[in-house]
Amino acid sequence: MNDEKIASKIKQGDERTIDAVIQKYSKLLWSIASGVLKSVASEQDVEECVADAFIKLWQEPDKFDPSRGNLKLWLCMVTRSRALDKYREVVRREELPIDDEILARSLDLEDKVLADERRKLLLLAMASLNEQDRDIIIRRYERDQKPTEIAAALGLPVKQVKNRLYRSKQRLHDVILKQNGGIR
Q1: Rounded distance, CA 10 to CA 61, Å?
Q2: Could you confirm whether domain 127-184 is CATH 1.10.10.10?
Q3: CB of 121 closer than 8 Å to CB of 180
Q4: Which of 1, 128, 139, 147 is the most exposed place for a label (fewest CB within 10 A)?
């Protein structure tokens, strides 16, 4: 089921859909909240942050707009935001100084989780390209070569390299959209 259908069913109050979302994303959201809170908060605080993300989706389904991004990333951002709020609340309550290093490490962990998800999507999309198109994309965006340099290295006309870059980016975009359930 794609994110648009999920959003529609949740707006209709379909409890099975929210249960499926909870089942699918609980571990990911738990890792994000615990990464932010691991040094200052209890397991109950982590659980509360994860639950708050699902409650927000259930009670305010219009806040999630499938046309602006996918559900997984939206839930991750809601959880991260709630965990940061909880972090500040716990620190204030216990009158502990905020340890910037701990907070930075926690945020870095979450950024790595999200980056890993984006990387997986990109690798799957890259696998859909033929070898020469993959090589052109890698040379352009990984090695930062100009189309003229790529053309010279591969013995192709510059116009053909530019056309292949354009078509390959379109293909990557389409494949990633398909993997995200058609959400732009």
Answers
A1: 7
A2: yes
A3: yes
A4: 1
